[in-house]
Amino acid sequence: MTLDRLVRIGGLVVFTALGAVSAGWEAFLAPLYWHTYRVPLALVLALVGNVALAWATREVTGRASAVLLLASAWVLF
Protein backbone atom coordinates (compact mmCIF):
# COMPACT_ATOMS: atom_id res chain seq x y z
CA MET A 1 0.00 0.00 0.00
CA THR A 2 1.35 3.39 -0.87
CA LEU A 3 1.59 6.31 1.51
CA ASP A 4 -0.93 8.26 -0.54
CA ARG A 5 -3.52 5.53 -0.17
CA LEU A 6 -2.91 5.29 3.59
CA VAL A 7 -3.38 9.04 3.96
CA ARG A 8 -6.65 8.89 2.03
CA ILE A 9 -8.01 6.02 4.12
CA GLY A 10 -6.84 7.63 7.36
CA GLY A 11 -8.39 10.94 6.36
CA LEU A 12 -11.67 9.23 5.57
CA VAL A 13 -11.70 7.53 8.97
CA VAL A 14 -10.84 10.76 10.80
CA PHE A 15 -13.42 12.87 8.97
CA THR A 16 -16.12 10.22 9.43
CA ALA A 17 -15.42 10.21 13.16
CA LEU A 18 -15.53 14.01 13.18
CA GLY A 19 -18.92 13.87 11.47
CA ALA A 20 -20.26 11.66 14.26
CA VAL A 21 -18.75 13.91 16.95
CA SER A 22 -20.21 16.94 15.19
CA ALA A 23 -23.67 15.38 15.27
CA GLY A 24 -23.32 14.73 18.99
CA TRP A 25 -22.30 18.30 19.78
CA GLU A 26 -25.07 19.74 17.62
CA ALA A 27 -27.66 17.56 19.34
CA PHE A 28 -26.28 18.64 22.72
CA LEU A 29 -26.46 22.35 21.76
CA ALA A 30 -29.92 22.22 20.16
CA PRO A 31 -31.85 23.33 23.29
CA LEU A 32 -29.44 26.18 24.07
CA TYR A 33 -30.94 29.26 25.72
CA TRP A 34 -29.44 32.59 26.75
CA HIS A 35 -31.68 33.84 29.56
CA THR A 36 -35.09 33.46 27.88
CA TYR A 37 -33.92 33.63 24.25
CA ARG A 38 -33.21 30.63 22.11
CA VAL A 39 -29.76 30.59 20.52
CA PRO A 40 -29.56 28.73 17.18
CA LEU A 41 -25.92 27.73 17.64
CA ALA A 42 -26.59 24.11 16.64
CA LEU A 43 -28.02 25.25 13.30
CA VAL A 44 -25.02 27.44 12.56
CA LEU A 45 -22.58 24.69 13.52
CA ALA A 46 -24.47 22.15 11.39
CA LEU A 47 -24.47 24.37 8.32
CA VAL A 48 -20.90 25.63 8.54
CA GLY A 49 -19.32 22.54 10.07
CA ASN A 50 -20.84 20.02 7.71
CA VAL A 51 -19.89 22.02 4.65
CA ALA A 52 -16.33 22.32 5.96
CA LEU A 53 -16.14 18.60 6.78
CA ALA A 54 -17.53 17.66 3.36
CA TRP A 55 -15.01 19.91 1.62
CA ALA A 56 -12.11 18.55 3.67
CA THR A 57 -13.21 14.95 3.05
CA ARG A 58 -13.39 15.60 -0.68
CA GLU A 59 -9.97 17.24 -0.71
CA VAL A 60 -8.24 14.49 1.27
CA THR A 61 -9.81 11.49 -0.45
CA GLY A 62 -10.13 12.95 -3.93
CA ARG A 63 -13.60 11.47 -4.32
CA ALA A 64 -16.93 13.19 -3.99
CA SER A 65 -18.64 9.92 -3.09
CA ALA A 66 -16.62 9.71 0.14
CA VAL A 67 -18.78 12.49 1.53
CA LEU A 68 -21.66 9.99 1.71
CA LEU A 69 -19.86 8.08 4.45
CA LEU A 70 -19.43 11.29 6.42
CA ALA A 71 -23.10 12.17 5.94
CA SER A 72 -24.26 8.71 6.98
CA ALA A 73 -22.21 8.90 10.20
CA TRP A 74 -23.74 12.31 10.95
CA VAL A 75 -27.30 11.06 10.33
CA LEU A 76 -26.91 7.78 12.22
CA PHE A 77 -25.47 9.38 15.32
Summarize the structure.
With 77 residues, this protein is mainly alpha-helical. The protein has helices spanning 3-29, 41-61, 67-76, and strands at 33-34, 37-38.
Word description of this protein:
- The chain is mainly α and 77 residues long.
- It has one domain (3-76).
- It is 75% helix and 5% strand.
- It has helices spanning 3-29, 41-61, 67-76, and strands at 33-34, 37-38.
- It has a two-stranded antiparallel sheet.
- The relative contact order is 0.20.
- The mean pLDDT is 92.
Report low-confidence residues grouped into runs of 5 or more.
none
Number of strands: 2
| SSE sequence, one letter per element | HEEHH
Q: Please state the average pLDDT score.
A: 92
Largest sheet: 2 strands, antiparallel
Strand order of the largest sheet: 1-2
Taking all Cα atoms into account, the compactness measure Rg is 15 Å
- Output the structural class: mainly alpha
Share of helical residues: over 70%
The structural domain count equals 1
Proportion of residues in β-strands: 5-15%
Oligomeric nature of the chains: single chain
- 3D shape: elongated
Gap from first CA to last CA? 31 Å
SS element count, helices: 3
